[in-house]
Amino acid sequence: MFQILKTGISRNRRNHRGGECLEVNFPIGTLHRDSASNQRLLASSATLPMNMTELTLSSLYSEIDLVIADYVFPAMPDSRNSSSASFEPGPSRSPTSESDLDLSQAVLNKGDEEEMLITGYETVPWRLILVWLGKILSLGLFWLLLYWVPRWELFLTSKRTILSKANQILVKEEYKGRYCRYYVKAVKTVKASKSASDNVTFDIPNPFGPGHRSVHSYKYFNCKKVKYIWDENNAQFFPLSGMDHQMPISVFHAQTGLHSAQQIQRRSIYGNNAIVIPKRNILYLLIKEVLNPFYVFQIASVLLWFLDEYIYYAAAIVIMSAGGITTAVYQTKKNEKRLRSTVMFSDTVEVFRGNDLLEVISSDDLVPGDIITIPSHGCDLHCDAVLISGNAIVNEAMLTGESVPVTKTMLPKGGSEIYDGKEHSRSTLFGGTRVIQTRQYKGQKVLAVVVRTGFATTKGKLVRTILYPAPVDFKFEQDSYKFVGFLGVLAAAGFIYTCVTQLMDGESIKDIALDALDLITIVVPPALPAAMTIGSIYAQKRLQRKGIFCISPRNINVSGSVDCVCFDKTGTLTEDGLDMWGVIPVKQGSDEKDPKFADHEKTPSNLDKGSELIRGMATCHSLTIIDGELSGDPLDLKMFESTGWILEEPTGNSSEMYDQIAPTVVRPPEPPGSPKRSESDLGDNDIGIIRQFPFSSNRQCMSVIVRRLPANPFTVFCKGSPEKIASICVPETIPKNFHEVLQEYTQKGYRVIALARRYMVKSLKITKIERMEREEVEQSLVFVGLIILDNRLKEETTPIIEQLQNARLRTIMVTGDNVNTALSVAKECKIIPYGRVIMVHAFFPDPTKPICPKVEFTLCDTVSGPKPINGMKILDMDDRYHMALDGSSFEIIRLHFPEVLDRVTVRGAVFARMSPEQKQILVEHLQELGYCVAMCGDGANDCGALKAAHTGISLSEAESSVASPFTSKEPNISCMPELIKEGRCALVTSFGIFKYMAAYSLTQFTTVLILYSIDSNLSDIQFLYIDLFLITVFAFFFGLTEAFEGDLAPHPPMKSLISFTPILSLLLQMVIIISFQCLAFFYVQSQEWFVPFDGDNPTYNGTKWEDYYQATTIEDSEVACWENYAVFTISAFQYIILAYAFSKSSPYRKMIYTNLWFIASLLFMTAFTLYIVLYPSYYFQSSFETLLPPIEGFRFVMIGFVVANVVICVLTEDYFMEFVIFRHCRKSCHNHEKSKRVYLSVDKWMKNTPSWPPISSRSSRKPIRDTPTDSSPIDGLTVVTEVVRNDEEAFQEMTGNHELYPKTALAENSHIIAAAILNSMPNTPTKSRPTSEVMDIDDS
């Protein structure tokens, strides 16, 4: 009996005390890998609490021993969050942790990027009636509020209930733990027939296994174009899946087609096979746009201004808003039309209806399980389907960006292997791609089984990412909302102040309401959101001129904060094409023993045509002939062309050749003068390609089964990464100096491919060949030789990398190539410009038992390093070093050594042999450490990383670029610094405009409050002049300053508004602004000629200035006074001063004088303002209601105040803030430990810990027991790993406890002993996430 702790997050293995205990009464060995079996097993054998419905037993199986390990060994304190050794049991749980859930909640898509928490609600009629009464009585205002926040209406009208009774679902979707999105979805019920007695059922897919089951009715809800069906047996919702879920591949070959009734019944569940983009009419879009909170606020402001007779500005705002709404609606309709024309199309297809009956139907009617025929001339695919007979040549450029045609082969027959979309991608036809042509045997059709339709297809998922994009993870945008909220609080305070003061003055309720509400529109300017987008819009247009296209302008600002750039290698840093450098054959000794490498051959065609190496190069590829030209992967093409052989494919009736088993034949070139042979003439060296296993990124190889015609035995040729090929070859057939030769060429940057072969038994028949599984074929091979290709750097690569390095931007190579090749390229292109390279190798000592993993650190580059001291080489931590590792090591470290993962990620420069998923994981982990990550790639294997990065830029113009917010027309990385420059320019522009708009509203707020104190205000024309001619003009031209053309600055601009520097800047400017306005206000009152303003006598009747006032021709003014003049004069110039002060130049933008429109507007507005405050005509004096002081010298004193204001503001912003605060105080005050950029504290720890990583040439501590490893140190320098005994005595010695763990389980779970050496590890800063095991290394 075991005590198992239920936890919410599978990766958090350290602190499990906060979970609930579950008593399981069955031996550990009875757990199954099949989660459905485990569910039934637990239901019958365990006492489960009611909230255990979401516990997944597949994760329980893999982690039960780790949980016990965590229970036995207490977690160590987290040094990153606590300076003391105290321990707080139990981390804070995730909002979607199962331990927080009851029967009203569940987690869907657990562990997936679309993970969501759902909560059930049931409508309460009386609540619903009250809410509708509130909507009616509030004249729609309450409805508008609930329209903006639908979940509030759900809370008010419904009560929380168990999911089985819910008629509404609240969906909560979290994004990286920072953002939440909510959806309210109705639960619908579908019945097969009106009467329960009718024997009519639906076939819905099983949630935990293959196949379908019959039900009379089902409940479901739709969210983000995905249908979730209620499963009564397991009491949970599950996403509707096609035939790709837990389906054995043998099932596909057993399909005979669906009858018409079955097809109609399935279509009622799956819906039409169509990616439907809603066609919304203009009126709907118009209303939807108008109901945006921004426009609703503008409408309210305009109504207020009309009531307050502020007609001119209100009319201007109406015109601008109408233009903005019209543009938005037009752009939305245009985008919808473009997307609809791209993704919505249908055609007719031929399907099997059983008993070899064929029927032509619309592609919209296809459902999973249909068998479709692929015509020989090709077609467009409308669904995802699996090939079960024949081959197809497919152009997948629309989805993958790869313009090279891809050969699709039929799914292997037989076996219990489960279909996996990624593993069997070379047998899967994807919707949206185009079949160019097909290959089939005599009398057979090319058939495919439909597995996914509609939005469930790969193309549908791509469209869903467009319809439901991930939120932009950007600090600036978050802070802008917070600051607007602060302005709202300030507006509320001003509202209360105005109401109180004017009530005390005895003003009417109407006047108080108008003045108080008007104050809100002053503090929170309606034009703020529009002004914020100006910088991004201008940057987007400049990027388009540079050949960089953006589908998400909001991401432009994000790109300005990039401090880490990841690059793919092949096609991104290096040329797409490869040049054949040569080959190195292997000479096998007698009985294939004592093999040796022969001399390299630069021209493969010079090899004997009977050579196994030349035959393998001629056959082991996926090339095909399209329109008379050889097409396929560039590597295969270059390899095959170097042989000089000829590839022939049958056309027409020639498919009957070669006993109907070899659709593709290769033959050596004929000697000069030889007679031309026909297709039917067979030579002794002609080879037919019988079967092909396409290249798999997971397996890192491809293979073919061939036959020398006409009747020789079958031969297997397999090519792939040297490491992979060596692992599946007979060890005796591999030359002893294999690693040295491989290292020699990979360190020079060559792309090295290994080739191997295997002769199959003569008695093997073609029928057996067709049924063989890949694992049977790719084993016990004989090593044949190495193929060496030259992959040159692109001309632009090195200068761009150096430019990024000089800007202190971290550059990382993430590639699927060999680690040594990647290292060589990294050094050549300056990703590793200096310092040392440490190879990180993680492995399991016994590959058959994935327990007790170890990590080795090897110094593979000793450039100008210190000399050995007593046989030890110690790294000087002042000397920067870089780390390199491959995908398998990355995966082991990620799963078993989280703290080491942080360090390796911070210092890693080369990540090789990385799968697409690992690339994405690396990008996400860099983001967790606090980096703002950019990813640049060109292929389909980069799409996940491109999508996950803060800034993804694709070098492919195919539609796969929708996974990336940016696409470059130029296929090189020169786009990266351009994008970063424009991003920095846009970010600085947005910062400046935001600060300017905030300062503008606060300045005007101050002005109005000062004038309210004497019962005056600005006139309508003064307001109009400030709002329309000063603010709007400056905001419009502010963003026209282009990006700086010089080198990138060594530091990115700030990205947080709510931080010390921008807040201090704004506060200081406001102190200056308020001081000068108050100075002018009190100074004018101190003049001998001054007469105070009287609201009851605004025309100065009965005073000494009555005649002077009448001479100004100001009529019926209630605000004209000398206090108004003084404050307006100063404030009008302050808006101009602030526009200049907040308009930053180098190093992120060009000098301000290059923005001619902005400079012209500054000069013109300055001149015009001088005119209206010094010597205006009677017309302007009357229009502005400006009462000029009778003493001309006073006007120039005001101008003197303005000059002083200019000097102080500019010096404060450009000198004090920029040099004193930002560049000096910021560095000295910065605290790495408290910084959210975790990588800073990790890097600081490594600099202060010279003992890590432990590089040495010999062990300073004798291992307990030597265990051989598969490590091959490159320079003879390797870390000494601690080898832990796998026996009970070692466990007892280290724990001092003899009864914590059963003896029988100790040997099977010996890896938990690694936790006992926690105290020997140096404490490294870690994020506040639990960790499991500790790296098993020597710390001496």
TrEMBL record:
InterPro entries from the UniProt entry: ATPase_P-typ_cation-transptr_N, ATPase_P-typ_cyto_dom_N, ATPase_P-typ_P_site, ATPase_P-typ_TM_dom_sf, ATPase_P-typ_transduc_dom_A_sf, ATPase_P-type_domA, HAD-like_sf, HAD_sf
Gene3D superfamilies the UniProt entry points to: Calcium-transporting ATPase, cytoplasmic domain N, Calcium-transporting ATPase, cytoplasmic transduction domain A, Calcium-transporting ATPase, transmembrane domain, HAD superfamily/HAD-like
Compositionally biased spans, kind Basic and acidic residues: 589-603
Keyword check for Membrane: yes
SMART domains, sorted: Cation_ATPase_N
Gene Ontology biological-process annotations: intracellular calcium ion homeostasis
Annotated region described as Disordered, given as residue ranges: 82-102, 589-609, 665-685, 1251-1272, 1321-1340
Record's compositionally biased regions (Polar residues): 1321-1331
A GO molecular-function annotation: ATPase-coupled monoatomic cation transmembrane transporter activity
Spans through the membrane: 129-149, 282-304, 310-330, 483-504, 516-539, 993-1012, 1024-1044, 1056-1084, 1125-1143, 1155-1174, 1194-1217
Enzyme Commission code: 7.2.2.-
Cation-transporting P-type ATPase N-terminal domain location: 243-310
A single Gene Ontology CC term: late endosome membrane
Keywords: ATP-binding, Endosome, Magnesium, Membrane, Metal-binding, Nucleotide-binding, Phosphoprotein, Translocase, Transmembrane, Transmembrane helix
PANTHER family: CATION-TRANSPORTING ATPASE (PTHR45630:SF8), CATION-TRANSPORTING ATPASE-RELATED (PTHR45630)
Family according to the record: Belongs to the cation transport ATPase (P-type) (TC 3.A.3) family. Type V subfamily.
Protein name: Cation-transporting ATPase
Organism field: Tigriopus californicus (Marine copepod)
